[in-house]
Specification:
This protein is of the alpha/beta class. The protein has one domain: Rossmann fold (3-Layer(aba) Sandwich), CATH 3.40.50.1010. It has helices spanning 10-18, 23-31, 41-55, 57-69, 80-91, 97-109, 118-127, and strands spanning 4-8, 35-40, 73-76, 113-115, 131-133. Helix 7 (118-127) links the parallel strand 4 (113-115) and strand 5. 38% of the residues are buried. InterPro entries: PIN-like_dom_sf, PIN_dom.
């Protein structure tokens, strides 16, 4: 059985959590045994921050518990080599710091990013990485 890799960004995690557009696409991918999903700890931290700010400590902690308990999502740490690569991507402009980790991880793994983030979509042709679009607008 061939395994297909995917990178989740913060947008994908929040879409799944909030049952927003694209949530079913994310759920289908992470529940498929022929697919592996990867999430940078930096993106998990960004999701935690967003939920903490909007819904409080309890909801943010539940997010972390849910993601960490989900064996279908592989959490990726950030040693200096990944930090440096993300900084290189960030220096190109147009992305948040957390987004640059998702993009550099996708490049490293040669895997598409599941996202609805328009800034990532804009950079995809320039850096030649694939996206699976879950946002509201039609991808370019």
């Amino acid at each position: 059985m061939e395994i297909t890799k995917f990178v989740l960004d913060t947008y994908a995690i929040l879409a799944l959590l909030e049952d927003e557009p694209g949530a079913q696409v994310v759920a289908d991918i992470i529940s498929d045994d022929t697919k592996m999903s990867f999430l940078s700890l930096i993106n998990l931290g960004e999701a935690y921050y967003i939920v903490l700010r909007k819904k409080g400590e309890k909801a943010a902690s539940e997010l972390i518990e849910t993601i960490c308990a989900d064996e279908s999502i592989t959490l990726i740490d950030c040693p200096w080599t990944r930090i440096k690569e993300a900084a290189r991507v960030k220096a190109l402009g147009g992305l948040s710091y957390a987004d640059s980790f998702a993009v550099s991880l996708a490049q490293e793994l040669q895997a598409p990013i599941i996202t609805g983030d328009p800034e990532i979509r804009k950079l995809a042709p320039k850096l030649a990485f694939e996206i699976i679009w879950i946002g509201n607008a039609t991808p370019v």
